Amino acid sequence: MAASPNGDGRVNSRIENYTEFWQKDMHKEEKADTDNRVDSYTDVVNGYYDGATELYEYGWAKSFHFSRFYKGESFDASLARHEHYLSAQMSLRPGMKVLDVGCGVGGPAREIARFSDVNITGLNNNEFQVMRARKYTKKAGLEGQVNFVKGDFMKLVEQFGENSFDAVYAIEATCHAPTWEGVYDQIRRVLKPGGVFGVYEWCMTDDWDPSNPSHKALAHAIEFGNGIPEMRPLAKAREALRSVGFVIEHEEDLADRGDPIPWYYPLEGDISKAQTTWDYFTVWRMSWSGKLVTHTVLRLAEMIGLVPSGTWKVGESLKVAADALVEGGRTKLFTPMYLVISRKPKEE
Ligand SMILES: CC(C)=CCC[C@@H](C)[C@H]1CC[C@H]2C3=C(CC[C@]12C)[C@@]1(C)CC[C@H](O)C[C@@H]1CC3
C-alpha cells in the first residue's frame, strides 16, 4: 500500500476504512467478520494506530499499556514499575541483546534500557510509530542503546535470523497478531537457545463464555476499540506458548491480585480517584468533559486538515474501548496483564 503524501508514514485510506472491519451492532458480528479481520490484520492494526497514536500520547503516555497502582503512586511511576517488573521477572542483565515486539513509540524500550542496562531493538509494523519512536529516542540520547525497525512480527526470522536475541518481550502487543501460535513461534525462533520470553498478554479470562451473547459482544467491543482482529481466551495463550515449544516458568494474571486501586481506574474518568495532584489532569482527560473537549478539537483538526481524514472516527472507537475495557475489568472477563515468563529450551 502506498504511503500518504504527507510523508509521516500514515495512509489515509486505511484510517478511513478501519471501522468498516466490524458490524455496527456488535451482536450481529459473525465468524466471517472475524476471519476477514484476521486475514487483513496488517490493515486493521495499521489503520487503528495511524489514527490512534497521537490520541494515545496526548491522553495517556508514550508507554502504550496498563499497569497496577499502589495507593499514592503516580500514573507515570506505575507505568514504569510495570515495565521494571517485567524486566525483573525476565532477569534481564546488563549487555543483553533484547527484542521488543510491538514497541509502540518506544516508551517501554527506553525505560527498560535504562533500568536494566540492556540493548534493545524495537520492532513495529507501523511506520508512523517507528518514526516517532526514533525521534523520542534521539531526544533522550539513547540512540546508541535502543534502535527501531519496521517489520511484521509474523516474519521475525526473515528480519533477524534464527537465534539472534538473549531475550524477547512483548507488552500488550501480541493480541494484534492473527494467531498466537504464529507470533510466539517466530519469537521462539529468534531467541538463542536458553533465551527468555516475557509477555503481558491481553486475553479474555476463564470466566468468559463465548456462547454467551453479551460476553461475545464485550469481546468484539474490545477488538473494535483497540485494533484487535480477534480477542482470545487466556487458556489459548498458554496452550500456544507450549505448542510452539516454550517452557513456561511463571504465569500469573496480575489483574487478579485484588489490588485496592484497579488497573482500569484512569479510564473510569473519575477524578476523585486520582492518586497525585498531577494525575488529576491525566484522569480528567478521560472524564466525559475531557473526552468532549479532546474529540471536539480532533474533529476540528480533521476538518482543517491537521490530522488525516478518518482520525476522528478512529477516535470515536477509542470511547468504545474505554467503556468496554472498564466493563471487562470490573466483570473480570478481560485482563490486559496475563504475565507469562517462558524459556526456549537449551536443546530442542
Ligand atoms: C490496544 C492495546 C493492545 C494496548 C493499548 C492500551 C492502552 C494504552 C489504550 C487502550 C485504550 C486507550 C484509550 C486512550 C489512551 C490509550 C488507551 C488507554 C484514551 C484515554 C486517549 C484519549 C481519548 O480521548 C480517550 C481514550 C480512551 C481509550
From TrEMBL:
Signal peptide boundaries: none
**SAM-dependent methyltransferase Erg6/SMT-type domain location:** 48-345
Cross-referenced PROSITE patterns, in alphabetical order? SAM_MT_ERG6_SMT (PS51685)
Q: Any idea which UniProt keywords this protein has?
A: Lipid biosynthesis, Lipid metabolism, Methyltransferase, S-adenosyl-L-methionine, Steroid biosynthesis, Steroid metabolism, Sterol biosynthesis, Sterol metabolism, Transferase
Name a single GO biological process.
methylation
- State the Gene Ontology terms under molecular function: sterol 24-C-methyltransferase activity
What EC class is this?
Answer: transferase
- Which superkingdom, per the lineage? Eukaryota
Q: Which residues form a coiled coil?
A: none
The pathway noted for it is: Steroid metabolism
**Gene3D superfamilies per UniProt:** Vaccinia Virus protein VP39
- Alphabetical list of InterPro entries matching this protein: Erg6_SMT_methyltransf (IPR050447), Methyltransf_11 (IPR013216), MeTrfase_SMT (IPR030384), SAM-dependent_MTases_sf (IPR029063), Sterol_MeTrfase_C (IPR013705)
Provide the E.C. number(s) assigned to this enzyme.
2.1.1.-
Keyword Lipid biosynthesis on entry:
yes
One Gene Ontology cellular component? endoplasmic reticulum
* Lipid biosynthesis in keyword set: yes
Please state which protein family the record places this protein in. Answer: Belongs to the class I-like SAM-binding methyltransferase superfamily. Erg6/SMT family.
- Mind telling me what this protein is named? Sterol 24-C-methyltransferase
Q: Which organism is it from?
A: Schizopora paradoxa
Query: Mind giving the lineage of the organism this protein is from?
Result: Eukaryota, Fungi, Dikarya, Basidiomycota, Agaricomycotina
